[in-house]
């Protein structure tokens, strides 16, 4: 298996280079996230207002973890990844942990039932795929290579006795107070296995190992990770002579109906893998967001300077209907996830779908359109004018619904002609 660790311990020249900025880098990074509305919670609470002195002591390193429970990250993970990479704008070094070991155990956060165990070979393959995906996306953003580490690196070398000795400074009372654990211990949920109960101990050890190897004492995570931040920071304080560690939790991104964005009712997940969600679909998902959702995501996800983001939002509000923010968001994030080539392909596919000359599409575009599972139709109105229409149609029932909808708009009877040449 190819090694996932790409870079070793941070060199002392790196630490010297950024040492003079410690007093402002972490604080400025947190302030930027606060301005964008990206801080749901912190450990300790009121981190950016009451712990100025402690923030000055933090080294310029930030980490986030990604468990390989699937063969691809999704758009919810992208929020954490983008804001991990954002720290590089403030002189900080990002580190990504791929939880090859923790995924085998299962995170109980946000769940009322036990996770299904995955086969070892599946977890191994997922770990390799997620690590490659993290490096590829980071390569579209950073000048330097992202440090990506599989936490199996240390857990596979750790005996049961070593693990239990490492847990000596973890307190069961604190572990039981975690919200995810308390909810799982209720009668409705039927309890929790020792396996998932121990997940938090492994995440605390992850942080400890990163402190030893990279001097990392700051972490960012998803909206449900506050309990893990709390436990990990206490663990570091007890095991490392009172050293201060801190972190933030990002908000959960939802649509207007309160569903997780990208996983609304009736829709599949929006994946970051081109094999699962094509660059075209990814681009169009962002391009078709409601104004409120687009503004929120633009604030959360854009790596542009905040002044430019706020100016773009102001311009958008003065020109509703021109999709200014949607265009900016779709262009930027498609390039971040799929690179320049992926963005160009998505833009060309989008333009081709709205062109009546589908036969003029190049072979590459036609192939990309076939993979989108979009069917192209021609609609003839009462004046014999041919209009291009595209729809996500997979069966006869959906086709009939499309036909009824087309005939219900306007006074003229619309005749569905097609599908045309660019159809799978």
From TrEMBL:
Catalytic activity as recorded in UniProt = tRNA(Tyr) + L-tyrosine + ATP = L-tyrosyl-tRNA(Tyr) + AMP + diphosphate + H(+)
Q: Which residues form a coiled coil?
A: none
What EC number(s) has UniProt assigned to this enzyme? Answer: 6.1.1.1
Which Pfam families does the protein's record reference?
tRNA-synt_1b
Q: CDD domains this protein is in?
A: TyrRS_core
The record ties this protein, via Gene3D superfamilies, to:
HUPs, Tyrosyl-Transfer RNA Synthetase
Q: Taxonomically, which superkingdom? A: Eukaryota
Q: Which GO BP terms, alphabetically?
A: tyrosyl-tRNA aminoacylation
Q: Which UniProt keywords apply?
A: Aminoacyl-tRNA synthetase, ATP-binding, Ligase, Nucleotide-binding, Protein biosynthesis
Q: What NCBIfam families does this protein map onto? A: tyrS (TIGR00234)
The name on file for this protein is Tyrosine--tRNA ligase
UniProt source species: Parelaphostrongylus tenuis
